[in-house]
Predict the 3D structure of the following.
Amino acid sequence: IMEKYGEAFLVLDGASSHNAKEQKELFSIPGLTVLEWPGNSPDPNQIEPAWYDIKRSITKRGGGVASKAKTIELWEGVWKDLEQEKIEGWTCKMKSHLERCSAQNGDNLFHG
């Protein structure tokens, strides 16, 4: 992305996973702007619906954190098998999702 556009924005919601050492190294990439997103705020990021689906699929495949290699193998397999129709369904909701976020005037009453 950086080579093509020269800059990128990353929005973080304060999840504990964003505090990992590897993540902090990523955040220092030149041209990357990290924006904090307040917890319990409307979330226009359409990857969010995928997390539930991915975690459920990993559990069905016997997931758990047995080893780093096994975890990577499970995540990559589930990501590869993620149905394009599901992804398109989530992204097609983006316009209405953003309209609902905007209707809240910055409040955190948005759910969904």
Summary: The mean pLDDT is 76. The beta strands are 8-12, 32-36.
